[in-house]
Amino acid sequence: MNNNEKFEGNAAVGVGTRVVWGGEQVQHPYNATQTPIVVSAAYGYNDIDAWYDVAQGKLPGYIYSRMSNPTVATLEAKLCELEQAESAVAFSSGMAAISAVLHTFLCTGKRVVSTRDSYGGTNKIFEEFLPRMGVQVCLCDTLDSEALEREIAAGCDVLYLETPTNPTLKVLDIPRLCAAARRVGAVVVADNTFATPLNQNPLALGVDVVVHSATKFLSGHGDVLGGVVCGAEPLMAQVRHYREINGAALDPFSAYLIIRGIKTLALRLRQQQASAQALAQYLSSEPLVEAVNYPGLPEHPGHAIAKAQMRGFGAIVSFVLKGGMPTVARLLPRLKYAHRAGNLGAVETIYGPARTTSHVENTLEERLALGISEGLVRISVGIEDTEDLLADLAQACASVRQELAAAKELHGDAYAGLAEVQA
């Protein structure tokens, strides 16, 4: 579908309107105001010739829900509106979407260039699965744009970007890297899950294919799995064909839940980002904290790039606790308004260390090689009142500091390495 079709004559319509109406300015059956959940596996035809034409794509319609489904199609249309894309393909999970894209555009003898500290599941595809297929994989230091450009120039069929990265919140210069990829004819893929379409539109910055874990901010309620891929129709036709044959189709009820979640995305993200900024600022002065990762902080190394290519800094903050995992184990149970879980993007605030969330698939040695310490904690900031989240984190940190100070006084240097404690 064309991104302008649904809002023809009102190109200036705001994103808050688009998340509600995108893909849904249509007449639903029975005059329903909400997208129906169509659970039929197959769709019947009395006219055999019409059936064949639909199957061949010569006429609009549906044949089998592994190939296409009316509820799923509405979700895909909504993502087209938000990502300014010609076409979109939905999947059963974010990793299904990422896997499908990489397997669609890569095969034996092809070469992919990416960064070292992408999401753990993505990293496993690069390190474990693609090499089995005979794909050459080159992973560069995430912040070394010159190294990335050299490797792209040396030969690149797919450039895979994730920005901001999960969980270190590093920011890549999308236009610069896309320019390098264009010079060698590479397909550029970008994971836009952390930024969301409200904060960043990679297609407008030169990317060819955008992927989302719809499980996260798009859904927003932690109750559904899904993934979406967006881009130009010729590329999406290839991705869609891969999904049809390999079968990782999104079910209609999950599609409905994601559609419903997207409608409040603008409202949710506004509150989440405000709280994320406040929490990041607090953590920057917390004695227990060694480092804070959030692009909204002026001292963040990617702050200037983020300001140039993003409209907001997102709702994810990560920080490194002094003393590593022992300090993490003390802090997290003391939080009152937080889930300790392996998800993100929900209305509730979620805390978790990388070893049990983003990089649970990786060994300790692999995480350390990726620059992810055992003391790194990721916060997915929810929609709770900012003041309550700040007070909750402050009381948890104060309690840990008091416990460590008392333990150090009692046991001496045996506890000195856990954290630099200020009473």
What this model shows, in words?
Helix content is about 40%, strand content about 15%. Helix 11 packs parallel to helix 15. The N terminus and C terminus are likely disordered. The strands form two sheets. A seven-stranded mixed β-sheet has the order 1-7-6-5-4-2-3, with helices on both faces. A five-stranded mixed β-sheet has the order 8-9-12-11-10. With about 425 residues, the protein is α/β, with parallel strands linked by helices. It has 15 helices and twelve strands. Strand 2, helix 5 and strand 3 form a beta-alpha-beta unit. The protein has two domains: about 260 residues, Aspartate Aminotransferase, domain 2, CATH 3.40.640.10; about 150 residues, Aspartate Aminotransferase, domain 1.
The CATH homologous superfamily of the largest domain: Type I PLP-dependent aspartate aminotransferase-like (Major domain)
Contiguous runs where pLDDT drops below 50 for at least 5 residues = 1-9, 419-423
Taking the sheet with the most strands, its summary is: 7 strands, mixed
Instruction: Assign an overall shape.
Output: globular
Topology record:
Elements (H helix, E strand, L loop, with lengths): L14 H7 L26 H8 L14 H14 L3 E5 L2 H12 L5 E5 L4 H13 L3 E5 L4 H9 L4 E5 L11 H11 L2 E5 L4 H4 L9 E5 L13 E5 L1 H14 L5 H11 L2 H20 L4 E5 L9 H7 L6 E6 L3 H7 L7 E2 L9 E4 L10 H6 L6 E5 L5 H26 L12
Parallel strand pairs: 2-3, 2-4, 4-5, 5-6, 10-11
Antiparallel strand pairs: 1-7, 6-7, 8-9, 9-12, 11-12
Helix pairs in contact: 3-10, 4-5, 4-9, 6-7, 11-15
